[in-house]
Design a protein that fits this description.
Layout: E1 3-6, E2 9-12, H1 23-27, E3 30-38, E4 41-42, H2 45-59, H3 67-81, E5 86-93, E6 110-117, H4 122-127, E7 129-135, H5 150-161, E8 166-171, E9 174-178, E10 182-187, E11 190-193, H6 204-216, E12 220-222, H7 227-231, E13 235-240, E14 244-251, E15 254-255, H8 263-280
Parallel strand pairs: 7-8, 7-14, 11-12
Antiparallel strand pairs: 1-2, 1-6, 3-4, 3-5, 5-6, 8-9, 10-11, 10-13, 13-14, 14-15
Helix pairs in contact: 2-3, 6-8
Bound molecules: pyridoxal-5'-phosphate (PLP).
Length: 283
């Protein structure tokens, strides 16, 4: 039997029903998070729940739980489902109300969370993945982790059709991020990644990676970089909750570096794993 969380209660999945006029369903009017579970424990849960609060505040959704209470609720769902390795997905919508554009007065947010079992993508972490370049056609508040993911879906579909894992997006020749990951390049030993502003989601894995760089004395430049710099990079890697630090070995049909994951990427992967093990125990 599969259990989910519906408006704060653990219920059987088939008992969780969302109204057809829920604003998440009709408008994508809501926000979400995906948190990785290792050894039955959430990794960087506080950071994810803080970002959820920030996303909620930026679109005026009031989350009816304190952050600590929400964390306890998610822990109870994970324990209930006995998940050792996987993810917990949670979303809040603005609730259900007759379909009108202005925010409804007095509608209570709809809260859904569920778990999924999944191992670490060990093979790809070893071998690396392929990417394509695509124009970033999304809106100008990519810092909000909103349910409106159509631009991201269109980008990732193009990647899938090209036999690639991820689409690296650019605006006017400036690299922003992947469809569901952040992008960094390495040039001459320096990690270069887009600054955390409205053009990208400030990934939690990106932040863990940057913290590792600071600790390990790896030089970092948080600045806009061009498609030309991407194409001339020694190393390219993606960061994300389910992919950790993922090497890119081929971009737009051209080999990145030597065609194998580079030394800086490997170091970051190793240290990322150490961070996971510090919080969640041995992998
Ligand atoms: C557009 C986008 N950028 C970046 C990320 C990476 O964020 P995180 O490391 O918090 O998973 C995601 C994750 O889903 C994403 O959807």
């Amino acid at each position: 039997m599969e259990y989910v969380m519906f408006n704060g209660e653990i219920v059987e999945r088939k008992a969780a029903a969302v109204d057809i006029e829920d604003r998440g369903y009709q408008f994508g009017d809501g926000i979400y998070e995906v948190i990785r579970i290792y050894n039955g424990l959430m990794f960087t849960a506080e950071e994810h729940l803080q970002r959820l609060d920030e996303s909620a505040a930026s679109i005026g959704i009031e989350i009816p739980y304190a952050r600590e209470d929400l964390q306890i609720k998610l822990e109870s769902l994970i324990a209930h489902n006995g998940v050792r390795f996987g993810t917990v997905y949670l979303q809040f919508t603005r609730g259900n109300a007759p379909r009108k554009h202005p925010f409804p007065v007095g509608a209570a947010p709809t809260f859904v969370a569920y778990t999924r079992e999944a191992g670490r993508p060990e093979e790809k972490l070893q071998s690396g993945v392929k990417t394509i370049l695509i124009e970033d056609i999304r809106w100008l508040r990519c810092d909000i982790k909103s349910l409106n993911l159509l631009g991201n879906l269109l980008a990732n579909q193009k990647a899938a059709e090209a036999g690639c894992d991820e689409a690296i997006q650019h605006r006017d020749g400036k690299v922003t991020e992947g469809s569901h990951s952040n992008v960094s390049i390495v040039k001459g030993g320096t990690v270069i990644t887009h600054p955390a502003n409205n053009y990208i989601l400030n990934g939690i894995s990106r932040r863990v990676m940057l913290e590792i760089c600071r600790k390990e004395g790896i030089p970092v430049e948080e600045r806009v970089f061009s498609v030309a710099e991407l194409e001339a990079a020694d190393e390219v890697f993606l960061t994300g909750t389910t992919i950790e630090v993922m090497p890119v070995i081929e971009h737009d049909g051209r080999t990145v570096g030597n065609g194998v994951p580079g030394a800086v990427t490997r170091k970051l992967q190793q240290e990322f794993r150490t961070e996971i093990e510090k919080q969640c125990g041995a992998l």
